[in-house]
Each structure stands twice: as C-alpha cells, then as structure tokens.
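User: Could you check the structure of this?
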Amino acid sequence: MSLLLYNSLKRTKEPFIPVTPGRVGIYFCGPTVYSEPHLGHARGPILFDVIRRWFIHQGYQVRLVSNVTDVGHLTDDMDNGEDKLEKRAKLEQLEPMEVAEKYFWAYFDAMAKLNVRRPSIVPRASGHITEQLALIQTLLARGFAYEQGGSVYFDVSAWENYGELSGRNPDELLEGTRISVRSDKDDPRDFALWKRAEAGHIMRWQSPWGEGYPGWHLECSVMSTKYLGDEFDIHGGGLDLLFPHHECELAQARAAGKPFARYWLHWNMLTLSGEKMAKSKGHVVTLDELFKQHDPLAVRFHLLMTHYRSVSDFSDESLAASAHGLRRLHETYRELLRRSSADGPGDTEVFADYHKRFATAMNDDFNTAQAIAVLFEAARESNSLLAKNPATPTLLAAKSLFESYAGEILGVLPEAQQPHADLSIVDGLVQLILEQRQEARLRRDFKQADAIRAQLQAIGIAIEDTPEGPRWKFA
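Assistant: Sure, the predicted structure tokens are below.
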C-alpha cells in the first residue's frame, strides 16, 4: 500500500517517492525562541513526531531537522520592525542569546511533556551565518539579488516562478502594495536576504556589505539543505507560513540552483473556543498554563483527533471529551496488560482487519483522526473479548496492537514502556485485598466490604462485581 501525501506545491495528493530509497529527509519550521511556548507551538511538532514514527515503522531511516530562529525574525514578520529576540531582551533586561537559551529549553521541556521526541538535528540560525552569507553571494552572482545601502534583497521580478507554492500572482501582489513601504527596495515585493544593522541594533555580524543580520526566510533554505541535501523529501510548516515565508524559501533556494523539497506539508490553524488564536491580542494559552489543568498526553491526543489539514479547536469541553476518550483506551490497554501472562505477538489474525485499516488511514496523508477511530473500534472488541475470558494468544494480539499503534506510533500510551512486572505485582496485591473484601461479604459485613472498595477507589482502583467474581481496573 503506497503512502499518499497532500503536496501543497501541487495542490493534490501524490504517492510518496523518496529521493533516496529507504531514507526520508524531513524539515519543518521550528519556533522563534523569544517567549513562553504556547498552544500554537504544539501541533507541528506532534504531527511530525507521528510522521517520523510512522516512517520508521514502515522500515525507513529518518532524519528529522527542525530549526530554531534566534535572529532575524522581525516584529511584523516581513522586513520592518524590531528583531523579536532583541525586543524581548530589552524587556527582560537580558542578553538576546540569554533570552534565546531560556526559551529554547522551555520549548523543548514542553515538547518532552507532550511525548515529542527530539529532532535528529536542531540547528540555530545564529550558528549558520557563514552559510547564509554564502547563499546570498550565490544569488547575487546569479543575478537574483541586489545590494542597496548595506542591505541585500531578493529580486522577485527576476524569478519568474515566484508564487508557485502559494498560488499568488506576483503582479497582483504589486498592485496591492505601497511603493513607499521601503524606499531602499527596487520593488516592494522584494524581500530581505541581509539587513543593514541600524545604530543601536545589538545582534549584528560582519558581511561583505557591512554589519548586519540575515533575513528570516534565508535560514530555512540554508539549514534544510545543509543537513538534508540540495533536494530532500518533505518540508513542513504551519499554513500561516505558506506565504511569504515558504514562498520566499522556495524561490531563493531554486534560484540558487537547488531543487529543494519535493513535498510540502502544511498544518492548519488552531482556534480557542472557535476564535483564531492571536498572540498580539492576547488570545493564546501557554503550554505551561495548559499543563496545569490538563494531562499533556490528553492535549497530544486531542490534536491528533483532527486531521492536520483541518482546523483544530480547543475548549474546556472538547479537551475534556478527548481526555475521556484517551482514558477509555488506557483502561482497555491496562486490562489487557494485567491479564496477559506472557510476552509475544499472539494470534495476529484475530486483529488483522484493524492492522490493515490503521495502516490505510495513516497511508492516506497521515489521517490520524481515522486511525484513532480504528483504535476505538479495536478497544470495543477487546473489551468484549475480555468479558469472555479469552485465551492468552488473543489477549497478546490485542495488547500488541495497542502497544504498536497507540503507544509507538501515536505516542499516547506511555504505559507501553513500563515493565510488565510492575503491573503483575499490583495485580497480586489487589487480588489479596479483593479476597479480604470477598471474605467480608461472605460474613455479611457489607460495611467492611464497602470500606475496602472505597479505599481502593481513593487510590485510583475501581472494582466491578461480575457473575464470574470481582474485577479491578485503574479508575
């Protein structure tokens, strides 16, 4: 079964054909580390964490690269305004790189709580100034850039394919732009490759055109190709980066003679209670605040319950519903783990249809929403089987399915990494307590039996009395 990806460049689903057979090179735009990580920072890393896990599950070797912007990202996201890190540094009375270091670790600490594995490489823009200068010089030599007053701009009019990714017509962009926006540009559509550092600008480097700093778009073209090659497989980012960031990346890379990314994947925006997140308006929630109220794994699960190209809405109600669904999967898995007396794949034919349907969902442009629906169906069948006391091979097959898909692929089942011995000890202790409760019931000491049930409930263990005897599960 071939993997289909929705390629933003072609605006259609296409079969995935890697540049190098058996290997996958992925780059996605990481954070600008100038403030606390917020909910908007979570969707992309979780998505590409699952994509990476799926490729590995399919037998590929994967190199995942995600950058950190610690210089050159201006406050209006174009060519005007103050550098975001420098602005924050003044506010907090810190060095710019001190700010970058502080929020770099805050971001990755939050990603760890979301069970996002570290990228293979995390390059920083400030550590690749030399390579960015080299790309600028290549573009100047090829006639696709020009220097003006110590700044260097990409000449959009010289690159006829500008707009191929976003679908925007360069002439229409010109009609809607005021020429007076930047007087040192030949064309208002042109974007900065290198900016001359004004007096008082802290973050600056030497260049052939004087002291300055790189434009925001330049870093991704440089760092992706440095670590993945001039042509690589997948480039990802938020839909809000499609234009101008990714359009500019593609233009400057191809103008420099690099084939660049084959497939472009864009995740859609997040909303809070139906309203678009807007940091400038304070309509945003930090991950630290979110984790104080909700399990990070529930946040991860909630994001995966919506296809990445669809809008994902966050509200207390929707997150509570997702958390409830995740608990149901956890309960089923824990019961399977508790009642499995051996290791091994088990009778794989029992759940063969679920394996096939999960793979079909993931191979259809990473449809995690449909894949989770398959897991819920598998959980219902597992619970039905558990009620019938099936043979061990059947339990092992169900347990293996949850460990592989809910645990290893979707990353929402941390219990899959816990030693089985731990649960066997818990099971033995609970069984001893249940025997004491059963003895109390036989003596008709229902007060004592109810007290035992209540004490177990208080520590997170629920008791269910069945015709076959009492059963327990984590509450």
